[in-house]
## 1
Amino acid sequence: MEVEKVFHMNGGVGDTSYHLNSSLQKNAAERINELAIEAMEQTYSALRPKSLGIADLGCSSASNALRYIKMAVESLMGPDTKTSEFRVCLNDLPTNDFNTLFKTLPDFYQDLKKGDNNPPVLVAAYPGSFYGRLFPHKSLHFVFSFCAMQWLSRIPPGIYDDQGRPLNRESVYITKNSPPQVIDAYAKQFAEDFWAFLEGRAVEVVSGGRMALLIAGRKTSDYFSLDKTFLWENLHQSFFTLVSKGKIEKEMVESYDVHFYEPCKQEIQDIVTKEGSFELERFEFVETEIDLSFSGAVMAKAVRAVQQSMMSHHFGEGIMDDLFDEYGKLLDKEMDTKNFKVIHIAVVLRKL
Ligand SMILES: C[S@@+](CC[C@H](N)C(=O)[O-])C[C@H]1O[C@@H](n2cnc3c(N)ncnc32)[C@H](O)[C@@H]1O
């Protein structure tokens, strides 16, 4: 399956949309407001470009994207601004619902801080994978990408044997049931993708420019902590409930795996150092407690908004309501007895 042609957040503004079900991502991003603004201001005071290029990579269709842009632009507007225009580049895969995003642009322009002499904010969309080239040579001063780079460019080929049979039959991602080759294949795919991401941005970001990245990650090298396996194990269990009800075939579940990987600090550091175009300036863990008011059903909807496109491509649209009902019920039971957190890694990288 070609991820680029299938994967997208649920579009529109309806009940199952990413727009209405992305508060986890919004909360995590808000935790690094300060870090991102500080990095922007440092970049701005060192470079003071006439035409400032900012990009949001993996922006999706929700209001989150323009909220981040507004914060970034407003932090630089003011009487001292030497910039005569802000060029804002919104990127996501071609399958993204850019129209829903564009429809919010008039409100975005209206909400921007008014002031004498504020420079124009010019927004453009750049559909394509951030694992390849996207923008013109040395056109960007600041890049951010929030909650996007844990999504790999493909399902790692190494999770299948030579005959194309799945090796990770008892799970949809890395869990205690996964054979070691599966873990290696996921880690290798992440390393390859992250390297390609840095190589692409190395051409596009000016020297002294910065990137602030927020990536779902692991706090230690352990793959199997509750926080890391909780959602996947329950999702797998929900698939098996549908198998036992005769709604899907067991083989379909055994051959389903996600194109997702959560790196740890060492992996990020090693790749940044070896690729060599950026310096790692800041590294922080961002822990977001799951709000106790979140029911299993709310959590299931948050996962559905992100994963439905890939799942319905594999299993068919018809099982989605049943699947996420089961998932919500299972999560309700688990969340009654256990607390868990979502962990992200925040990094600031400076272009050498
Ligand atoms: C969970 S959403 C995060 C959206 C937004 N940044 C936020 O904070 O709410 C992840 C986004 O990354 C996008 N994405 C994943 N892989 C991508 C790739 N290779 N190139 C561009 N966008 C990608 C997805 O399509 C999706 O819109």
## 2
Amino acid sequence: MRTIRKKREEYQNHEPGASADGLWKILWKLEIPPKVKVFWWRVVHEFLPARHILWKRHIEPIAFCAVCGAPEESIAHVLLYCTVAREFWHQVRVGIGVKIPSLNTASWASDLISGICSRQDTTVILCGMWTLWMMRNKRRHGELSMSIQQAVTWARDTAYDLWQISHPVQLQVPDKASPRWMAPSQGWFKINSDAAFYENKHSGATASVIRDHRGSFHAAQARWYERGFDVCLMEALACRDGLLLAKQQGIHQVWLETDCLELINLWKNNDVQRSIVDPVSSSARAAGAGARSPPESATGSGACPPASCSARAEGAGT
Ligand SMILES: [Zn+2]
């Protein structure tokens, strides 16, 4: 990582007019719009028509600031010390949390891009200063300028957008190995059941959604349980509730899908099945299914052939 000193040296070594000089290299890497890069280039080289600069060149008869009456309207005055600038940076500090650091009056423009602020803060500060200069120009030309609050918002949003573009959030790419929600065969319905269990209160909730073979929503419900034993039992209750919901809806051909691997493993174990998974098997029987389901299955309706009665551990695609 470059040190501030190295960046300063890189800047100081640049030769005006050379396209690949240190200043431009630093500017180029900043996460600011191109127009702001060009603007900052002009700030560093004092290529902006501030009144005091024009006055020194005998172009402007007066040097004072038309806003606050300060004797010299320098670039630094417009961007840092004028009453408008002070109010602007106050609002930036309060609203965005970005503070202008202590600056050397001689080298402040180059210091600001030499790493004395974080990259994010530098983006906000330079965008803010560009905005202040645009506001100054509009005032000078008698045009309506945006309010300070609008300017702060623009600087904030621009900096934020640029930061997001430069540092995109890594979206989670679905694992190809984990299948998405798969519709049941035509004429069948799928129940997706899930549960929540709050260990500290020993309470929980269940939720079930029923969709048809096209994936179209058919029915859903959620139930709250004041008492619960553990998460696996709650998952079993969720499956039972899903099956009861299907029964209420007059649905008899169902696939039941849960994301609880432990429950599926218990279901496969006939001995344990009678204990913790009993609510599910009882409901399955009540719905007309056989008391036992084949391996790879959790439960199903009476009309459901074994191969179609699936409870897949990977079926959390809802
Ligand atoms: Zn002023």
